[in-house]
Write a structure and sequence with these properties.
Layout: E1 2-9, H1 14-30, E2 34-42, H2 54-67, E3 71-74, H3 80-89, E4 93-95, H4 97-108, H5 112-126, H6 154-188, E5 193-200, H7 206-214, E6 231-237, E7 242-248, H8 258-269, E8 276-282, H9 288-301, E9 309-314, E10 334-336, H10 345-368
Bound molecules: guanosine-5'-triphosphate and magnesium ion (MG).
Residues 200, 202-208, 220-222, 224-227, 251, 314-315, 317-318, 338-340 line the site of guanosine-5'-triphosphate (GTP).
InterPro entries: G_HFLX_dom, GTP-bd, GTP-bd_M, GTPase_HflX, GTPase_HflX_N, GTPase_HflX_N_sf, P-loop_NTPase, Small_GTP-bd
Protein name: GTPase HflX
Coiled coil: 159-189
Length: 369
């Protein structure tokens, strides 16, 4: 994928805009693409036909031909009409941020559940576009569909086929969810098992932390969205006769596209049964506060904000030279660690133990009542 990035600033301050474009570059790389050029435009309100101005469209068209790009990626979400019009003018594939995220997800999904969820998100994103697709774009979605009658429009046929597939996927996902729920039920009810969910912005170090805590090889990569399937691991504390189940989850991003939010709701739903949430934060990142807020907003959407949360401030080794420089954490719900160096992991173990004991005690109280 040889890409040109089109950054439209819709009134963000320069720092935020810069961060948005950097993240988009990261997404292109995660989709195994290279960024060959960037084009910017300031625009308060989008042009209904092209989002950007006609002059910009021409500029991009020439740049695409000049440097041989095959993809143009926008930092904003485009309407079906805009995609269609831009595709007519520019000889490259036009992607918006959601398309890009979906492409990455497509490549990464491994389990049947994740694959179905990505397909569902993709189809839901395509649905409103079908009517507006012209020419080459049509071949992108399902082939070999039967027509109902001679008078039926191609758009109608495709819409119907997509809707059928969506319904089928939803049924299959429900079935998988039911099975998973059954498996979870046994452990939820157990006073000796603490359920912990790892959440956080993509690339914050969730999988690294899971590895450190459980010493297992989880796929770790300096890429956005390395983890797409939820993975579960155990920690055993024989001294207190408790076990902890830790679930790694898909990373969050700002403005998570609705289609993805919906499709991955099932995955994130695993966090619904959690007794404790570990929110992993990369404090070496200049934008960590913004990212933290993004994650907290999503937790709120999932109605998880009531659960106890520990903020795990990770990658401190990138900020201080050695472990001796670690300062005591200010509050009980914050802990500064380095997942890769293993700093403060013992303290994190202590926190987990404390919660495991507390769960057992509360469960006991409930039984007495
Ligand atoms: N220096 C340093 N690097 C870290 C630390 N923890 C994680 N990393 C690096 O950060 C990158 C991302 O780590 P992952 O564990 O894959 O992050 P993740 O949150 O699981 O990412 P996604 O699955 O993509 O959402 C990798 O290159 C890790 O080696 C840390 O404590 N210190
Ligand atoms: Mg991961």
């Amino acid at each position: 994928m040889r890409s040109i990035i089109v950054g439209v600033n819709t009134g963000l301050n320069p720092a935020r805009f810069k961060y948005q474009i950097e993240e988009l570059e990261g997404l292109v790389e995660a989709a195994e693409g290279v960024v060959l050029g960037k084009v910017y435009q300031k625009r308060e309100s989008p042009d209904p036909a092209y989002y950007i101005g006609r002059g910009k469209v021409n500029e991009i068209k020439q740049l695409v031909e000049g440097i041989g790009a095959d993809t143009v990626v926008f930092n904003v979400n485009l309407s079906p009409v805009q995609i269609s019009n831009l595709s007519q003018e520019i000889n490259a594939q036009i992607l918006d941020r959601t398309d890009l995220i979906l492409q990455i997800f497509f490549k990464r999904a491994k389990t049947k559940q994740a694959k179905l969820q990505v397909e569902l998100a993709y189809l839901q994103h395509q649905l409103p576009r079908v009517y507006n697709q012209k020419g080459k774009e049509l071949s992108r979605i399902g082939g070999g569909m039967k027509t109902k009658g001679a008078g039926e429009k191609l758009g109608e046929i495709k819409t119907r086929a997509i809707k059928d597939r969506i319904n089928k996927i939803k049924k299959e996902l429900k079935e998988i969810e039911k099975q998973k729920k059954q498996q979870r039920k046994t452990r939820e009810d157990n006073p000796n098992i603490l359920n912990v969910a790892l959440v956080g912005y993509t690339n914050a170090g969730k999988s690294s932390l899971l590895n450190r805590l459980t010493k297992r090889d989880t796929y770790i990569s300096d890429q956005l969205f390395a983890t797409l399937d939820t993975k579960t691991s155990f920690i055993h504390f024989p001294d207190i006769n408790k076990r902890v189940i830790i679930t790694d989850t898909v990373g969050f991003v700002e403005d998570m596209p609705q289609e993805i939010m919906d499709a991955f709701m099932t995955t994130l739903k695993e966090t619904e049964e959690a007794d404790l949430i570990l929110h992993v934060i990369d404090i070496s990142d200049d934008n960590w506060m913004l990212k933290k807020q993004t994650v907290e907003d999503v937790l709120k959407k999932l109605k998880l904000e009531e659960k106890p949360v520990i903020n795990v401030m990770n990658k401190v080794d990138k900020v201080i030279p050695s472990q001796e420089y670690l300062e005591p954490d200010e509050s009980e719900n914050t802990i500064t660690v380095s997942a890769t160096k293993g700093w403060n992991i013992d303290k994190l173990f202590d926190i987990l133990k404390k919660y495991a004991i507390k769960k057992g005690e509360e469960y006991g109280k409930l039984r007495i009542l």
